[in-house]
Every structure is written in structure tokens, then in C-alpha cells.
Amino acid sequence: MLVSALSSFDFAELEDNEVIEDTGARSGADADLVAITTPKETVCPLGAECRNVLKVGDDTTFSAYIKNSGDADITEMAYTVNVWLSDANGNPSILAKDASGNDLTWTNNDVMCASVSVCDFQSLSAGAILGGGKHTMSVAGNPITWTPVKGLYVVEMILNANPDDDVGNDVQQVFVSVEDWYDIGVELTWDSGNEMESGSGTKDWTLTVNATGSDTFDPRDVRIRVQTTGEVSAAQTTDGTTIDSSGTNIFTAGTSTTVDVYENLSSEPSTITTDTRSVLTTWTLSGSLTVDVDNVDSASYGLKASIVDYIQYDQWTSCVYVDADNNSFDNFCEETFTRDAYPATDSSTIDGFASIFNDIRISQLTVVQGYNADGTGQGTTFFTNADSGDLNVGTSYLHVEVEHRGSEAESTYNWSVNFQITDPLDGVVDVIDSTTCEAVEPAYPVYAPLGIGQGMSMTGYACTMVSLSMDGEYTFAAELIPDTKMTDAKPSNNDMSMSLYVRNNAPLIIALDLLNEDDLYMGQDDLISMAVQVFDVDDPSSSNIEIEWMFNGVALPGCERTTMLTVCSVLIQGDYVTNFPVSVNVYDPNGGEASKELMLQVWNDGSNFASTTSGLGLNYDLLYWGTTPFTVTATDGDALTNLELPGFTGRYDSVGVIDYSPSTTYSANDVLQQSMSIQYDKSLGATSLWYVNGASWTMLSDAPTDVDATTGQFSYTFPANSPVLSNGQLVLMGGSLAQAEVPSASITGFNAAAAKGGAIQINWDVDGTMLSGDSIDVTVCETVDCTTAFEISLGAGNTSYPYSGQSTTHGVEYTVTVAVCNEVGCSSPVGTGTVVADSAVDGGAAATDLTIAAVENTWTVSWTAAGAQDDVASWKVCYQRGTFDAANMPETCLDAAGTTLDVDISTWSAGTYTYHFTAVPVDALGNSMAAGTMNSIDYQRDSDNTNTDDGTTIIGDDVEGGVPTWTWGVIGGVVVVAFIVGAFILSRGGEGDEGKDWDY
After folding, report:
1. Which of 347, 321, 361 shows the shortest CA–CA distance to 222?
2. Residue 238, Cβ neighbours under 10 Å: how many?
3. pLDDT tens per residue across span 125-163
4. Cβ within 8 Å of residue 382, ≥6 positions away
5. What is the pLDDT of residues 788-805, one digit of tens each?
């Protein structure tokens, strides 16, 4: 059983313990700390390098073999781990401390006990090993860990078990040395980030060398050997230094620095020698290698870097100097090393692999269109072998793109392309050995092999120009011919074809315009000029398009069918007048055509001259919309004397009269422009020209001009949008015109105030005497100088005007103006002011909680005034038989100054009725609001059919015979009043039937 237990021991870990207590079987339980396995004891053989030295900063755990060497079970156990400071002979002194000043001692009292929840172990049977082998010392389930600093230590482990018959084997100690460590790390990486590179080509790499250590570590002249491995055709650093597979490629890592290389302490003072060395902290070297793919199907390649040696400066044994007096001096000097603390980081290797696959292919076949007929221009439409659709007739290019598809871009392939075009009639065109293309972007004017070397390209292009001249299906094919020296691994991608339908596109009329800027009319000096813009999709230059201009199916003079006749200019003829439709027709070389119409408007010239017997001449110039000739008739009219002229004072006589009549009176829409002139003998003394139509006089001109020494002329240009002058008289008046003046009468005592219902009451007086042509003009406007004012002219004697409230808005301010005016203007002063229209009671005033109380012949109506009362002047109480809403308020109303009103019912007629009441506020102008019924009261009065023997034959209400008997009650807010009075047969009355009798 003991052999079985010990078979799990790591005897290699025990071999460094110089003394292991020889323990045999004990009587009873015996806890035996057989050996400390971690950390191992430091051993320093004479003249040799120490073994099992710990490195500063390396976390260290503690483990041991713990055995029950007795013949009974151990049921309780604890242990302690101590780290003591030691001298060089392994003698402990005091407990060491951690970085925080705590003693390096750990105790676990819960290693073994009966409780499963507290202890990891519940017992250790005779001959058993704790944990079945090496046990890692822990506290609270966590391994005891020590981060050591430089020094000499004794590690002690102590067991405390129960039962334990022999405590002499419960303690073990080992001597441990902790030293600073130094490391030079060498790391090669692919710049791609791949751990293993793949494929061929040029691969970039970086070598990083750095120096690290637990203490200052500045190695000098660190020499690194770099060499290629596998199939590499070339390798070099970024500065061009060649690297090969030999071991001669040595690089010195570090930065050149002047440092001490020797210090002789035997002299006083000491003497120091300096020199230049490459001191290493972190150093990088970059470069690239190119995979050798020639004549191989696969290639393995890589790079290796390793430390050759390095120099350190310190007080080495080799630096000790002993003088003649046998004095020893520990001088400083340099010493060369080939190893460091971590040999695993002293070299690095990167690898890659490539498989070689030779292939070129046609990647795309394209028909490019949009060129001019001669092949010039720029392609605009592309149809690839992946597209569907129709092509246009015209000049096109069949374009192919070829690609290097081999696995190694360094492989070089020569190539050419054969094209074949088959038309709808099976006509075939072959184009052999195409290798370039300039017509399609990107331009490829010079052939280049496929590859990445100088003068090569991974993509190539070839094209050939084709003329597509007929409708139907074309087949386009291309075959890629590789160099005979290359075996293409995939020849199936070396040819490509496609079939597309070709159609002729009709030419397009882009724009058709009239170049003349002004209106066209008969007799104008300028020609009619028209321009057309055309485009042929099949020939963007449109150089072969023919154009003709036509009117009523006949070519316009000088505009017959001609190539690219884009401008047509013609003289206006009589049959062009009014609507003048011009058709332009365009034709392409392949039978396509298009047309478009330009509708022009040409005005007729109606200029006409007529004269009277007396020698008065009338010249009427007219441009009009019509084909019928326009003429005017002029005859001498009767003289006019002692006339008043509007706008002028005094009386005047005519010196010439023309009775005028046009052949046609064209409306304003049918007139482009018109003017008129009257010529007369200057001896007539004409000073003005007037047009008279009935009682209407309009002055056309008061500015005569001279035609010659004896002839004068009046000219008049009609305003735009004017019709032809209708029948009338053209009157030449003599005498000097005296301008009329504004009225002498003016407004005084002006007043404008708001009235009921939003009306405005305007009052004024007139100071002075008004003449027959004077009027009183009243203007009402929402704003000063508004453009849509209300205006009315009143005659003399009017001193007031009520402006209706239906034309106002409540609360809006209106400007009112009153003035005395004539055709010349208005006199001053004028009456003006502003008024705010008032058609409602402001402030939301209303009656609420209306009640009716009956006392004998009186009903007392009361209510509560709600809302603002600033605009309330009084109240109005309205009532009627039967209910009502706000839109149907009764007209029977009584005024009340306050919120209570007594209604006398003593004279009301007999009957039984229900009276409904409401109350509304009234402002100072009498404006009120509408309201529906607010409460009601029942009324009852019995009729009396007896005759009072008063000498009359009338049976009626005895309204003077005392107070009748009353009964009343209030039920749910409704007051019931009952009357029993004298005999009534019928009652006479108006609305409501109250207060009047009817004869029986």
C-alpha cells in the first residue's frame, strides 16, 4: 500500500533535498512533512552556476509532500508557511516582509477537520499522502503566493496535526536565492497580422528586439542573425540590405551611444575609458521577402532571427585586478554573453505557404454605345454579358476585359483576343489579335502582359469598332488566346459571347423655339426666325440628320429638307396672319423620323387713313387679330359752340369736328397696339383734341405738333388692353384751356360715432356754397389709406350718413372721411376720425340663476349678473307663452335698470298658460345678446259668464272689480299662479293674448 501511495511522488522534485528524514512506520498517527517541493532549494555547486534560483517578480507558490507515516488516522491538521531572511550559509534570521510591510507568514487552521463545509480534508489514513500527491499550500481555498524580491531566504513549512505521535518530522526548511533577471526578446511578425502567411508575392515583415529585466538592463551590441528559409527568391530590409539563407546576415540591434567601456579602480582617481556602443531598449527592423514561384506547384517560405551574442558592462570576475602588493580591485569592464534568463525568447521564426495556379480569363464582354458616326466621342451606354435589353443602331465598340487569375501575381502571361460579330442576316465579321483599346475608358493604348512586374498589369482591355446598321439580333463573341508557353489550368473561362437585339431609334426633337423676341405682325421688317435642337441616340453628333420646315404641307421658302437645317427664317406673308402653325420634320439615315409643330401668332396690320371734305385727316394705326381688312370713315360734323369742358372752367367752341366710324370694333383681346393722329390746317387755331361719345367727353391730347409750316397734328396712343375706338366724334377745340379748381365749400362740424348693431353714424356741416359739379364724398375704411374702402357720393344738402352695421366687425376700428369734391379734387379741410364698431356686449356679461316669484298680481323676476359688467348699461327681460331658444327670442320685452324686474299681470286675460322668461344684458348703444329660456311660471285665471247688470251687453274681464282669488305654488322651479275672476267668454288680445279683450 505504501508503494502504491509513493508511486504518485515526483521524485525529481525530491532529488534536490539533501536530507530527507528516514521515517519508518510509527505506532499511532504520525503527520510527516516529507519534503518541500516548491520552491526548490537553491544549490550552488563549487565553481558552477547556482541552480533553482528564483527570479525577482515571478509569483511563487508553496507545495510539499505530507504523509501519515503512522498506523492510525489523522483527523485534524493545520500548517504554517514562513519565509525568513537568510545569510549566505542558509541561516534564517527574521521573517521577511512583503511590499506592504507585512510578515511573510501564512497559517491554515482548516486543513483537516470533521466539518465538510469548513475543511478540505476530514482525515488522512495511515500511509496516505495528503491530496494523493504533491499538496499546494493554501489559505481559505487560495494558494499561498509570494512575489519575491532580490535576496537570500529560508522557506519553512510547519505541520500541526492531531493525533501526531512524532512531532520531530513536522518541520522542513529549504534555502532559496532570488536574483534579478534579464531577457532579450526577439520577435518576427508578418505585417499582414497572419500567424502563417499564405500565397506568394512580396510579404512584408518586422523584427522587434527589446531588452527587459527586473533591474536596469541595457545590453550593448546585441547581434541578431536573420536568414531566409524555404523558397524565397529575394529578401531585403527596407533600406535595401540583402538577406539570404546563409548565417552571415548579422544586424546589431540598439541605438548608437557613447558609454563607459572600462573603469580602473586601482588608480586614484579611477580612470574611465569610453567608446561607442549600440545600446538596446527596443529596436525594430523591417523588410520584405518575395516568394520564389518559378517552376513549382507549391512553395514554403519564411524567415528566422536569433541572438548571436551581446555585451554587458559590470564588475565581472574577469575585470578583477591584483596589484603588486596583492591588493584586489573589482574594476568595471565589458563581457560577452550568449544566453539570458529566458532562452525561449532568444529566437523567432515566421512561415508561409503558397500553392501555384496558372489562369487568365475574360471577365467581362461589353457593347459600348453613344459614339458619333465616325467612332469619336465618349461611350455613354454599356451592355454587358450580364445585362438584357436592346441596342441602338450606329457605331459601337465591342469591348472585352481580361484578367490575371493565377494564384501568383508574379507569374507573367502574354495574351490576345479574337472578336467575331454576327449580324441578323448571318453576316460574320472577324477581328484577330486585339490587345489594346483607346475608345473605352479606361484607355488602354499600349499592350501589356498580365502580371505585376514592370510594364505589366493585372487587367487588360481590348476592343474593336463595329457598325450596327440593321434591326435584328446580333451575336457578339470573344476568345482569349493565352501565350503558348503557359498551360492554362482553366481554359473554360477564355471565351464569352452574348446576343442582343438591335433597334433603330427615331431622332429626337429636343427643343423648338421662336427666336424673335417681339410680337409678330404683318409688315414688320424682321424675318420670322425659328430654331430646332435635335438629337440622334444612335449618332450623338447628329451630323447626318435632315430637317425640313413646312406650313400647310408645303415647305417654307428657303427651308426645304436639308442636312442639319436647324434654323429657318422667312418673310411674313398674308396667309400667315393669326394662327401660323409651322411643322418641323427630322429624318435619320436609318429611316427614323420625328416631327413637332410650333404654333405662331401673327397680328394683322390695319393701318388706315381717311380725310374729310374740309381737309381734316385721320390716320388710325392698328395691329389686330383678324383677317378682315380694317378701315375707318371720317366726315365733317356740325360745329359745337359755347361748351363747358370737364375739368376746365369757361366755355369753348369747336374749330373742327370729325364724325368717326370704324369698319369693325375689335375688343381689347383682339388688339395688340393702336394709335391715332389728326392732321388739320394750323389756321384753325386748334388747342385740344376731344373724343365725344354721347354725353361723355374725353380729352385725347392738348399738345399739338407741327407737321409742316401750315399743318398741325394731334397724336394719341391708346393704353394697353384697349378696344378699337367706337363710333363717335373727334372734336378739335379752340381757345386756351383754363384748368378747373377744387370746390370752395368744405366740411365743418364733423362727427362720427358708433351706433347700435355695429353701425357708424356720421354727421357734418358744409361751410360755403356747393356748385353743381360738387359732391360730398364719404369714405369708410378699416385701415388708413386702404385699397378697398367703402365710398359713396352724396349731393348738396346732406349732412349725415348712417354706415350699416352689416358692413362692420365688432371691435374693429374704422377710419371715416368726409370731403367736398369735384372731378378736380377735394377741398380742405375734410372731416376725418376713427370709430370702433360696437355690435355686442363685451366682457362675457350674462344673466344666471334666473328666478320668478309671484305675489298677488305681480311676478318678480330676479337674476345674477355674471361676467364683466363694464359694458352693461341695463338689462332686458323677455317672455312668451311656450319655450324658446336663443335664435328665437320673443319680442315682448321689458327694460330693467338692475337685476330685478316686477311684471304686472293684473290685466292679463283668462286662461291657463306657461310663460317662459330670459334676461340679457344691454350696453349703452342698445346692443344686447340672445339667450334661450331660463325659467318658467304657470299662469291660470278662470272666466266669469255672469252679467254684472251694469247696463251693458258685454260679458268680459272685470279688471276693476277688485283682486281675484289666487293660488300658486312652486314645483321644481316652476311657479303656478291660479286666477279666479269675473266671467270671461273670450279675450281680445295681440301677441300673447294678454291685456286685451275679445267681444262675445
Report:
1. 347
2. 11
3. 999 999 888 999 999 999 999 999 999 999 999 999 999
4. 366, 367, 368, 369
5. 889 999 998 899 999 999
- As annotated, the residues of the chain forming the CATH 2.60.40.10 domain(s) are 2-179, 182-355, 360-503, 508-603, 746-836, 846-993
Helix%, strand%, coil% for the chain, nearest 5: 5, 50, 45
Phi, psi (5° rounding) for residue 305? -135, 140
Specify the CATH class of 2-179 in words: mainly beta
**Is residue 207 a contact partner of residue 226, using CB atoms and an 8 Å limit?**
yes
Residue 650 is classified by DSSP as: S
The CATH architecture assigned to 508-603 reads: Sandwich (2.60)
Summarize the confidence of residues 81-108 as an average pLDDT: 94
Distance, C-alpha 126 to centroid of its chain: 84
Q: Name the DSSP letter for residue 7.
A: T
360-503 CATH choice from 1.50.10.10, 3.40.640.10, 2.60.40.10, 3.40.50.2000? 2.60.40.10
948 is written with which cell numbers? 254684472
What kind of architecture, by CATH, is found in domain 182-355? Answer: Sandwich (2.60)
Which residues are CB-contacts of 830 (< 8 A; sequence separation ≥ 6)?
Answer: 746, 747, 817, 818, 819
Residue 514 to residue 552: CA distance in whole angstroms: 18
How far is Cα 655 from Cα 645, in angstroms, rounded to an integer? 14
- pLDDT tens digits, 451-469: 888 889 999 999 999 999 8
Residues 363, 365, 371, 374, CA torsion sign? positive
Q: What is the pLDDT of residues 763-782, one digit of tens each?
A: 999 999 888 778 999 999 98
Can you read off the three cell numbers belonging to residue 175? 534555502
Residues β-bridged to residue 460: 402
